[in-house]
Backbone:
């Protein structure tokens, strides 16, 4: 049986998972690939560092040149993360005629166009299944199995760390910082977890999915991004009282322009995404032929993510075996317009702190009405003559620009102490 050799860049959470799977399932993998897959070298920062997996000492190197100059290596797997030096390593690997597999969503979201065309020019493969949804097969189904569809909506939970945090805050009343620490220990979070909690990781993933689904490049700058750092425990409990759960959603729609946004969202507790908990991710895709399809599974972690990477390595190996270049290339055939965020339409949850005086609620609802904003629910808690009390409102669907204009005036009202939070609602 032919042997195909792999160079692994990075041996952290995902790298160690990939190494483990290639060792533990080597016979089955060889049968499926039609070739024995062997790791020939592993790039680490320091060859004396302790790794999460036992790697033969003489495979370790701290010098990328040893990998790129190893003529036996056919496939290079990038699992160091971030843009530099990952981008340079990936481009050099492709330009040297190696197929590349990566889990790096930031790199693909920011430089996907250049990377995919470099692979194409060199007649090699670039696969990045693990970059979205961890272990869930989503890139390949969207690009290949759903290729016959015109996709008009992609919506889901695509960040495991924030879903884990929101789940534990909601179910156990846990503190944000403690749960984030736990997510880091479990290997879910990015090296810098700000990327998770500020929504950037989900935005990279949405940019990748939308570029494929809408057949037009969605640059990361086009994605509206809000993270979960402003979500307070009281928002979670008011949402519950109103029959909702709060999830960080990534939403892409095509309807008179592409709309791409990542933000915390109230969804009805009966919605299928409301029961996607912990590190699990789920993505709905709506296509004209298939209707709606949902992808669900573990969105992060060593072995699930390793599973997606190894699947890509096997596909790349089969293509090498057959002397073929794999899948459909870059699908950004068009150059579509984007919808400004102010033009998007959703319902909103508003939490205000107001003085408990007659007339305040009337003034607020009056101003909302002037901007065409009507209300679905109102909760007012507590009675205090001198202190501000919470007022929670849920609006009907409204153009975001109208609500923002109304809130500018509401903020200035005597009796309104603060607009404490504003969260979009999807039905
Ligand atoms: N963790 C997960 O669940 C998932 C991760 N991903 C993606 O997979 C990639 C890897 O993530 P993950 O394994 O979690 O990250 P880790 O931080 O656990 O692993 C990255 C490893 O690469 C090493 N490294 C960084 N730069 C270099 C370099 N220049 N030369 C050699 N080694 C280097 C790091 O060393 P050191 O620690 O010393 O800096 C670390 O050991 C990222 O792109 C991430 O976004 C995708 C899906 C899920
Ligand atoms: N940090 C990411 C890892 C997988 O992509 C997440 O939490 O989802
Ligand atoms: Na995936």
Residues:
């Amino acid at each position: 049986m032919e042997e195909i050799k792999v160079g692994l860049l990075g041996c952290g959470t995902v790298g160690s998972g990939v190494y483990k799977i290639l060792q533990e399932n080597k016979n089955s993998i060889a049968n499926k690939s039609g070739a024995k897959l062997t790791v020939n070298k592993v790039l680490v920062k320091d060859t004396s560092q302790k790794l999460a997996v036992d790697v033969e000492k003489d495979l370790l190197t701290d010098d990328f040149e040893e990998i790129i100059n190893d003529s036996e290596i056919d496939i290079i797997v990038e699992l160091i993360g971030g843009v530099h030096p990952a981008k340079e390593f990936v481009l050099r690997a492709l330009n040297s005629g190696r197929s590349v597999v990566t889990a790096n969503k930031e790199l693909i979201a920011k430089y996907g166009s250049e990377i995919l065309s470099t692979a194409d020019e060199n007649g090699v493969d670039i696969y990045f299944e693990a970059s979205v949804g961890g272990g869930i097969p989503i890139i390949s189904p969207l690009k290949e199995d759903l290729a016959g569809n015109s996709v008009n909506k992609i919506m889901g939970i695509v960040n495991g760390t924030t879903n884990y945090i929101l789940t534990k805050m909601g179910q156990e009343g846990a503190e944000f910082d403690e749960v984030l620490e736990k997510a880091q220990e479990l290997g879910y979070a990015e090296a810098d977890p700000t990327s998770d909690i500020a929504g950037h990781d989900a935005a990279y993933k949405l940019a990748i999915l939308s570029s494929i689904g809408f057949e037009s490049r969605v640059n990361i700058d086009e994605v509206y991004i809000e993270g979960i750092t402003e979500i307070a425990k009281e928002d979670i409990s008011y949402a519950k009282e109103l029959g909702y759960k709060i999830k960080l959603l990534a939403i892409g729609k095509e309807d008179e322009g592409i709309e791409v946004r990542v933000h915390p969202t109230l969804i009805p507790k009966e919605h299928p995404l409301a029961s996607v908990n912990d590190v699990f991710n789920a993505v709905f895709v709506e296509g004209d032929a298939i209707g709606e399809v949902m992808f669900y599974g573990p969105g992060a972690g060593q072995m699930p993510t390793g599973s997606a990477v190894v699947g890509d390595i096997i596909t790349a190996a089969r293509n090498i075996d057959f002397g073929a270049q794999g899948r459909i290339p870059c699908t950004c055939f068009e150059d579509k317009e984007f919808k400004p965020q102010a033009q998007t339409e959703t319902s909103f949850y508003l939490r205000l702190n107001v003085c408990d005086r007659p007339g305040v609620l009337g003034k607020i609802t009056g101003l909302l009405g002037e901007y065409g904003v009507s209300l679905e629910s109102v909760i007012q808690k507590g009675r205090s003559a001198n202190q501000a009390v919470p007022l929670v409102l849920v609006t009907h669907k409204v153009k975001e620009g109208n609500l923002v204009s109304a809130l500018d005036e509401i903020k200035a009202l005597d009796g309104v102490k603060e607009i404490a939070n504003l969260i979009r609602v999807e039905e």
User: Anything to note?
Assistant: The longest strand covers residues 244-254. The chain has three domains: 3-134+302-322, 139-298, 342-425. The longest helix spans residues 302-322.
